[in-house]
Amino acid sequence: MSFPDLLPHLSPAARRDFADILQYTFENWGENQMLAYRGILLKDLSLIVHNPGIGHFHPSLSDEFKVFGTGRHLIVYQKRSGVAHVARILGGSMDIGKHLEDE
Prior knowledge:
alpha+beta; three-stranded antiparallel sheet; 4 helices
């Protein structure tokens, strides 16, 4: 599954997160590392979209959300009608509940 195939499953905030993560990675570690991390993120986003039960509940979130760790980030998503919809892709040390409230 390519990034365009994932777009219907990503919120606008998750799309911004994805772009920001890749930009930061490129600026700090270069193109090769950015491409490698992009592959990891795309693989795990695809995994979630095809297996929405794979994530875990998080104590700071309502039961409608699940979290899945990828690299140094957490993918936060909801399962609606059997399909995963990604709300955010956040750094592992970020306050997840606060960043979901901001949306």
